[in-house]
Design goal:
By secondary structure, the chain is α+β, with helices and mostly antiparallel strands. It is globular. It is built from 10 helices and 26 strands. Helix 1 runs parallel beside helix 5, helix 3 packs antiparallel against helix 4 and helix 6 packs across helix 10. Helices cover 26% and strands 26% of the residues. Strand 8 and strand 9 form a beta hairpin. The strands form 6 sheets. The protein has a 5-stranded antiparallel β-sheet, with no helix packed on it. It has 3 domains: 143 residues, no CATH class; 207 residues, 6 Propeller (Neuraminidase), CATH 2.120.10.30; 94 residues, Cytochrome Bc1 Complex, Chain D, domain 2. The longest helix has 28 residues. It starts with a helix and ends with a helix.
């Protein structure tokens, strides 16, 4: 290979190395090798190493013998890629088949294309390769070079309050898993993503967020190799919840997570503990390692009950009770009747003494409990995933049986009916839920609101949801739900907590952190709140009038899905400040024939305040 051709070939290979290094992680995990979690990053670096070895060997062959033929090139590449894959297997690390296949395919293309096609013999190829290399490096690598996006503000309008929500996106390293959770500590809270990577977080007075990675040993998900169980997505092996609990022997960080048993080829949920310095300083003690407190039994195999989706149900919520005791929920991913059979942990709420190791069954007959909260009366509330329909809010009773699978308000996903278990004896009649959602909202955790900043809501439950991407404020009367109010968030809310100063913090499957703060309304906001008898804010909820969030600067009568009056439909142009002011002053005078039933706002200063608020809140 002559010098000019060799230089073009090497430039092409530099382009290939950049693509193999950056593209798979960017496409599948939205991250880069230097910010990705350890396992996928290690996998990509092995692929890049194999690529580099193949390029060096082929270059040496070409320098000694001239033109490189296709068969030797394929052989060199095959040996290099096989070696990388063998090393990955020997290390017994988790790997992603999509990233593996994509990296190998890209490597094969860039290494073999010049050999098989001879496409790099002209000068224009050098220029194209150089430009492409620069574009790949800049475009795919930009995600790690740019500063994090600034937090995104958005008001949340409810029946009694306007809340300020600040959306912090990309708080942790991207894990694709969902899951994870929050835990309150002194001066802030801990965040865990689905991989179990821990961060200590604090909030500023304005909702600003600071996070610091917490140095802790990695959690053990077991010897899970996706290639041995192709039906089981590795992203399902995740953290369910975390909490920090003081005991007489010291403070422990608890983590609920999946664990894969390679010998039995099944998975269970574990409760692991790490000794930390305290609530004020939740860093691990010197030499501390995760230890297993409990492993739910029996271990569950994929699809053993005929429904592969049930394999994903784990529960795993933690609720501290004081005096070193906790409640711990265990879902039932196996045969439904294991929620009723003695000796099974599945479908139970367990009470665990962290100091003695004693474990008692607190309640039974659950499907997949997702949330636990204790109210001011000491009562325990639990949220639970139903099947298709029938998500539940339950008031737990010690020793109570909540009926699964004998009693449910939902149906099976596949068949749309539910099997008859009426001949199964569960003793006394099962306890009915305080409320059931049909259709399901994809219920997750809940808290009891106790802030003086929201006096009208004090004592209410705040329930999070995944499928509905909303919060539900639940008013309880006695042991039953009087009503609930949905509050749209637009993200899958996995966990939530309330800070001592009354702010509400949400953790989402998108790895965003949402900080919600009550605010005092001035006259303009109170008037705007009145608008929500017809309008919505974002359009995610159904309203009889168009959403207001982007009305400033929006084309008149332009929101799809709304039937505007003929008088308004013929209007052209945008909603400018002047136009909004005229419309708010007297809608009928500005647009004769409008269907908007509103007498208008005579005070110019009030109109200006409302318009300024609409402009700033876009």
């Amino acid at each position: 290979m002559k010098g000019s051709r060799l230089s073009r070939w090497l430039l092409w290979q530099m382009l290939g190395l950049a693509v193999v290094l950056l593209a798979p992680l960017r496409w599948w995990l939205s991250t880069t090798p230097w910010s990705a979690p350890a396992d996928p990053a290690h996998q990509v670096w092995l692929q890049v190493g194999a690529y580099g070895i193949a390029v060096v060997v082929i270059a040496l062959i070409s320098l000694r013998g001239g033109t490189v033929r296709a068969l030797p090139a394929v052989a060199v590449l095959g040996v290099a890629l096989s070696g990388a894959f063998l090393l990955l297997l020997l290390e017994r690390r988790e790997f992603f088949r999509t990233i593996l296949v994509a990296s190998a395919a890209l490597t094969a293309f860039f290494v073999l294309f010049p050999v098989l096609v001879g496409a790099l013999r002209s000068r224009w190829a050098t220029a194209v390769s150089g430009v492409a290399l620069a574009g790949v490096v800049v475009g795919l690598g930009a995600v790690s070079l740019k500063d994090p996006d600034p937090p995104r503000p958005r008001p949340l309008f409810t029946n009694e309050y306007v809340l300020d929500a600040l959306f912090h996106e990309g708080v942790t390293q991207h894990s694709i898993m969902g899951g994870g959770g929050l835990a309150a500590v002194e001066g802030g809270f801990l965040i865990s993503n689905g991989y179990g990577q821990l961060y200590r977080a604090g909030l500023g007075p304005d909702g600003g967020l600071t996070t610091v990675a917490l140095e802790a040993p990695p959690i053990d998900f077991g010897e899970f190799i996706p290639e041995t169980e192709p039906e089981v997505a590795p992203r399902r092996m995740r953290v369910n919840d975390i909490d920090v609990v003081p005991t007489a022997q010291g403070t422990v960080l608890l983590m609920s997570h999946f664990w894969w048993n390679l010998q039995e080829r099944c998975r269970t949920v574990r409760l692991s503990a790490l000794d930390v310095r305290g609530l004020a300083d939740p860093t691990p003690l010197p030499g501390a390692r995760w230890r297993v407190l409990h492993e739910a039994r029996p271990c569950s195999r994929f699809g053993e009950n005929g429904d592969p989706w049930n394999f994903l149900m784990t529960g795993g919520r933690i609720l501290p009770l004081g005096e070193g005791r906790i409640l711990f929920t265990v879902g039932n991913p196996s045969h439904p009747m294991l929620s009723q059979e003695p000796g099974s942990d599945l479908g139970r709420t367990l009470r665990i003494d962290l100091q003695t190791g004693d474990i008692e069954v607190y309640s039974t007959g659950h499907r997949n409990a997702q949330g636990l909260a204790r109210d001011a009366q000491g009562r325990i509330w639990s949220t639970e995933h139903g099947p298709k329909g029938g998500d539940e809010l339950n008031l737990l009773v010690e020793g109570g049986n909540f009926g699964w699978p004998v009693r449910t308000h939902g149906v099976e996903y596949v068949t749309s009916f539910y099997p008859d278990y009426s001949d199964v004896d569960v003793g006394s009649p099962p306890i009915e839920p305080a409320h059931a959602w049909v259709p399901s909202i994809g219920i997750s955790n809940l808290i009891v609101l106790d802030s003086e900043g929201l006096p009208e809501w004090k004592g209410d439950l705040l329930v999070a949801s995944l499928r509905a991407r909303s919060l539900y404020r639940v008013r309880v009367r006695g042991e039953r739900v009087a009503f609930y109010e949905p509050i749209s968030i637009g993200l899958r809310v996995r966990d939530l907590l309330q800070t001592p100063d009354g702010r509400i913090v949400l953790w989402t499957d998108e790895e965003s952190l949402v900080v919600i703060t009550p605010r005092r309304m001035d006259a303009s906001r109170e008037l705007l709140t009145d608008c929500f008898s017809c309008h919505t804010w974002t359009g995610e909820e159904v309203g009889t009038a168009p959403p207001l969030q982007d009305v400033y600067g929006r084309d008149v009568a332009s929101v799809p899905g709304y039937v505007y009056s003929d008088a308004l439909s013929v209007q052209r142009g945008e909603w400018t400040a002047e136009r909004l002011s005229q419309f708010l002053k007297d809608p009928a005078a500005m647009v004769p024939g409008t269907t908007m039933q509103f007498t208008g706002i005579a005070d110019e200063a009030t109109r200006a305040s409302i318009i300024r608020y609409l402009q700033q809140s876009r």
